[in-house]
Amino acid sequence: MAMTAEAAYWFLPAVIPFSIYVAWRDLSTMKIPNKANMILLGIYAVFGLFAFPFDLYLWQWLHIPIVFAVGLLLWMGRLMGAGDVKFLVAASPFFVVTSWDDGYFLIVLYTSSLLAGVIVFYSFKFLPVLHAPVSGWQSLREGRRFPKGPMLAVILLAYLILAAVYG
Questions:
Q1: Are the C-beta atoms of residues 1 and 161 closer than 8 Å to each other?
Q2: What is the pTM of this model?
Q3: How does pLDDT run across 63-115, given as a tens digit for each residue?
Q4: Which residues cross the membrane (predicted)?
Q5: Are 124 and 146 in contact (CB under 8 A)?
C-alpha cells in the first residue's frame, strides 16, 4: 500500500461521515446524488494538497479519466449503475497505486467487500427479523438490482483505515 498513514489521517475525518451518507442514501433510495460525488472530489481537492506531495497530488487526478473510461464500459454492460460509476470516479484520486501489488490489493478489497455486502444485503432482504426495521428502503424492493454504493464506500473507508494503521 503506497499511501502513507499521515495522508490517510488527513482524509479520514472528512471521508467517514461522507461514506456513511453515501451507503445510507444508496440503500434507501438506490441513488447516489451528484452533489455527494462533487463533495468527495472537493474533499480530495482540499485535503489532498496537504496529504500528498504536490507531484503525487497532481498525478492522482489522472485516475479520474481512466476510471471513468472503465466505469463507462461497466455501465454500458449493465454491470454497474451510473451513480456507482460516478462515485468510483470521485473516489479514484484517493487510491495510490504504484505497483501491481497495490492493484492486486484493491481487487481483493473490492471482491471481499462485494461478497460481504451481498451476504449482508440479502440477509436484510430475506430474513424478516432484519427486514422489518428497514422495510421502507427502495433497495429491498428492487428486483434484481443490487446497490453497490455501500460496498464502494466500505472499500474507500477500509483502504484509508488500513493505510492509517499500516501506512
A1: no
A2: 0.90
A3: 999 999 999 999 999 888 899 999 999 999 999 988 888 888 989 999 999 99
A4: 7-24, 36-52, 83-100, 106-128, 149-166
A5: no
